[in-house]
């Protein structure tokens, strides 16, 4: 009997991570998708969303031929639960730079990743900068997408206002952040992803707009020790290309790529356009740290 399905090469798994920290610690069951082989490329989704955003990249044979692409759901997002060993429902969720960076390092350690490249978008781009500052020797390079040293003004109560449909409010806030050239099918998918993550969105923005502030730390980031390739789309008005360029200019050895005709969610709103710029970034990283298929420098 002929098969009717077309199977993706992407596989999904859970890994349990223990964060041994008196303030941040806990047991986290984390879901991640992966495909490919070679140097690990670890991908963080945007605030209030999940790893669906990276499916175009995960299924791209041109990238996965030389990179093991891993896209995870941050705890409280997608298929990753809140902590297993704490009464988390009695706490107000506010993501911090300390937790975020320690979690990413713990995930990379649990997966035994050697010199991974870390790429995140929006608040994921901001945490990429934090990782380059806090843990430069743990990563082969970082690619902050739609990121800057400081992104104030978006930690707002009305994201979860009882008089509003929080899912619709959070999702609709993404619409004009995408380029009009991006295909309607992909823009509506990005909108749909955001209808599913409204509970975590406000807490994520506490990191994005409050706790993340590297304005007086940029000179401490060494982009030669841990290469930093920043990319921002021309239709992003939250983190404009000018903001990203100004951030990159203050980081030793950092580079900036301006992405034309794309917005704040480049990997999901128009992956073919994003891919061209990502290939540029990966090529620059290869030239600086060397490309291998084993993940070793």
Please describe the topology of this protein.
Layout: E1 11-19, E2 26-35, E3 39-44, H1 55-58, H2 61-64, E4 67-72, H3 97-110, E5 117-121, H4 123-134, E6 141-145, H5 166-172, H6 184-195, H7 198-211, E7 229-233, H8 241-249, E8 255-259, H9 266-269, H10 271-289
Parallel strand pairs: 3-4, 3-5, 5-6, 7-8
Antiparallel strand pairs: 1-2, 2-4
Helix pairs in contact: 5-6
CATH class: Alpha Beta
Mean pLDDT: 87
Strand content: 15-25%
Number of helices: 10
Q: For the record, give the distance between the C-alpha atoms at the N and C termini, rounded to a whole number.
A: 47 Å
| CATH fold field value | Rossmann fold
Helix residue percentage:
25-40%
Low-confidence stretches: 161-166, 291-297
Biggest pleated sheet: 6 strands, mixed
Physical arrangement of strands within the biggest beta sheet: 1-2-4-3-5-6
Q: Write down the domain tally.
A: 1
Structural classification: alpha/beta
CATH architecture: 3-Layer(aba) Sandwich
């Amino acid at each position: 009997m002929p098969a009717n399905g077309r199977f993706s090469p992407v596989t999904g798994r859970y890994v349990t991570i223990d964060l041994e920290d008196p303030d941040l610690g806990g047991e986290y069951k984390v879901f991640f998708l992966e495909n490919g082989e070679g140097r690990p490329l670890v991908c963080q989704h945007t605030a209030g969303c999940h790893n669906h955003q990276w499916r175009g990249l995960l299924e791209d044979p041109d990238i996965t031929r030389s990179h093991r692409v891993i896209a995870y759901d941050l705890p409280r997002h997608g298929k990753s639960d809140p902590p297993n060993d704490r009464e988390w429902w009695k706490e107000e969720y506010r993501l911090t730079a300390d937790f975020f960076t320690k979690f990413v390092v713990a995930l990379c350690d649990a997966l035994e990743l050697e010199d991974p490249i870390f790429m995140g978008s929006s608040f994921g781009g901001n945490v990429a900068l934090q990782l380059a500052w806090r843990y430069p020797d743990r990563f082969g390079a970082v690619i902050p997408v739609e990121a800057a040293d400081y992104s104030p003004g978006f930690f707002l109560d009305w994201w979860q206002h009882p008089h509003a449909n929080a899912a619709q409010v959070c999702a609709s806030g993404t619409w004009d952040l995408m380029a009009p050239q991006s295909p309607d099918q992909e823009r509506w998918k990005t909108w749909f992803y955001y209808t599913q993550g409204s509970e975590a969105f406000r807490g994520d923005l506490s990191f994005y707009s409050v706790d993340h502030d590297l304005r007086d730390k940029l000179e401490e980031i060494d982009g030669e020790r841990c290469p930093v390739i920043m990319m921002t789309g021309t239709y992003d008005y939250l983190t404009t290309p000018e903001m990203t360029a100004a951030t990159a200019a203050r980081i030793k050895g950092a580079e900036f790529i301006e992405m034309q005709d794309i917005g704040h969610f480049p990997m999901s709103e128009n992956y073919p356009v994003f891919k061209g710029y990502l290939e540029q970034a990966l090529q620059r990283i290869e030239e600086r740290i060397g490309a291998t298929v084993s993940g070793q420098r």
